[in-house]
UniProtKB/TrEMBL annotation:
Protein name: 2-dehydropantoate 2-reductase
Entry keyword set: NADP, Oxidoreductase, Pantothenate biosynthesis
Pfam families, per database record: ApbA
GO molecular function: 2-dehydropantoate 2-reductase activity
Source organism per UniProt: Paracerasibacillus soli
Entry's family note: Belongs to the ketopantoate reductase family.
């Protein structure tokens, strides 16, 4: 399977690097300044789950340099989404499934809307966008090396449409020998909303209170605010027909 990582930040380098470590064909599609940094420093992963040096990473700066691709691991920041759309379109036209792992849920409809004309023309797959999310704490240092500081390094993915299931099953087989935790979710939309609920609720409450999660949970008043925001997010998800229930909160 040919994988292109679009967005070689901490997330993209970590998961892309783990795929390379397991012997898979991965290309990093990056901006020119990031390519120069990789050329000068290489890529390294410093992790609680084992260090790894990517000896000779395949790096390109233009989508035209990519001949064929099966999967795009799409991990840019949300504010770079619109700028990445033209590249995603070109990769989809080369036969790729797209696996976004951005936080939130709205980016899926944005990508689908951008691809719709090309889907209708039959130049991309009929359903090219998979569901995806990740759980990991990782940053880049000044050399562009990844520092993974938690035990968790989980990738969750799944089919939005039954036609994608065969590919997700192939991906599941591929990932069994990769040094990450992975899950082929039977309800990836629900998984996305569950994460969206918690990051929205706790990021807002910790910011407003200027307190860490532990302190928020310690006091009944701040803990209740967190629960109230979770309930609002649950109700929002229900409006979108996502079956979030009281137990989720």
């Amino acid at each position: 399977m040919k994988v292109v990582v679009l967005g070689a930040g901490a997330l993209g380098v970590y998961f892309g690097g783990r795929l390379i470590e397991a012997g898979h064909d991965v290309t990093f599609l990056v901006r020119r300044n990031r390519a120069e940094r990789i050329h000068n420093n290489g890529l390294e992963i410093h992790s609680t789950r084992g260090n790894y040096v990517v000896a000779q990473p395949k790096v390109v700066v233009d989508v035209s340099e990519i001949d064929r691709v099966d999967l795009v691991f799409f991990s840019v920041k949300g504010y770079h989404l619109q700028g990445a759309i033209p590249t995603l379109i070109e990769l989809a036209k080369k036969g790729a499934y797209i696996l976004p792992v951005l936080n939130g849920v709205e980016h899926f409809s944005v990508i689908e809307k951008a691809l719709r004309p090309f889907i209708e023309q039959g130049v991309t797959k009929e359903h090219p966008v998979l569901g995806g999310l990740s759980f990991i704490i990782a940053t880049l240092d000044e050399k562009g090396y990844v520092h993974h500081t938690s035990k968790q390094h989980k990738l969750v993915y799944g089919a939005f449409h039954h036609s994608q299931q065969e590919f997700c099953n192939k991906l599941q087989t591929l990932l069994t020998k990769v040094n990450i935790e992975s899950e082929n979710s039977e309800d990836v939309l629900l998984a996305l909303w569950e994460k969206y609920m918690f990051i929205t609720a706790f990021s807002s409450v910790t910011t407003a209170a200027n307190l860490p999660i532990g302190m928020i949970r310690r006091y009944a008043e701040t803990k209740q605010v967190g629960i109230d925001v979770l309930q609002e997010m649950r109700q929002l998800g229900n409006k979108y027909n996502v079956p979030l229930d009281e137990n989720t909160c």
